Amino acid sequence: LEKNYSPNWYQVYRAAGLPRRRWKDADRAWRRHYAKHRPKLIAGARRVLARLGDAHNLGLVTSGDRDRVTRQLREFRLTKLFAVRVYSGDTMRKKPHPDPLRLALRQMELHPSACVYVGDAPQDVEMAKRAGVCAIGVLGPFPTEKRLRAAHPEFLIGSIEELPDVLKRLLR
Predict the structure, then answer these.
(1) pTM higher than 0.85, yes or no?
(2) Do residues 124 and 95 make contact, with C-beta atoms less than 8 angstroms apart?
C-alpha cells in the first residue's frame, strides 16, 4: 500500500491488479472498514484549523466519500470551519485532476493565486499545481516523505502545527 498509496482508491485497485468488476465489492469492504474503525484527528488539527478559520476562508477538497467525510467532520466538530466542501463524487474527474479544486475555488469566488492547498499526498500537490494554486505538503504516514517531496510542493511541513507560520511567510 505504501508504494501505491493514492487518495483515489481506484488507482490503488488498479495498481494492485484488482479487476474492475471487483471495484464495487472493494468499495463496500472499505466502507465497512471505515464504519468499524473510527479515525483519529491529527494532534493539534482542530486548534490550528480554528485559528486559521478566524483569519481565512477555509475549504475542503477530499477524495473521500461524502457520507463518511461528513460524519467524520461532524464527529470531530469541524463542519462549521469549512465554507465549502467538495467530495469525491462532486466532479467527473478526480484528483490529481484540478477539477475538484477548481470547483471549490468557483464556489468560494476566489482566484487560484489567492489560495493555498494543503495536502498529504502527491496527488494533492499535483492537483494544486495544475489548478494554479500554491501547494503545501504535510508529512504523514502515507505516502512516504520521498514521494511527497518528489511532487515538489512549494512548502513541505512535518506537521499541521507548522501551517500558521508558513502562511504568515506567504502573506508577507
Answers:
(1) no
(2) yes
The enclosing domain of 46 has a CATH number of: 3.40.50.1000
CB neighbour list of residue 46: distance below 8 Å, 6 or more residues apart: 76, 77, 78
What residues make up the domain containing 53?
A: 39-171
- pLDDT (tens digit, 9 = 90+) per residue, 67-98? 889 999 999 999 999 999 999 999 999 999 99
What three-state secondary structure class fits 151?
coil
- pLDDT-derived band of residue 6, with 50, 70 and 90 as boundaries? low
Rounded Cα gap, residues 63 and 30, in angstroms: 13
Positive or negative: CA dihedral 110, 114, 120, 126: positive
Residue whose C-alpha is closest to residue 104's, from 119, 1, 171: 119
**123 in any annotated domain:** yes
Contacts of 129 (CB under 8 A, 6+ apart): 135, 152
115 lies in a domain?
A: yes
Total structural domains in the chain? 1
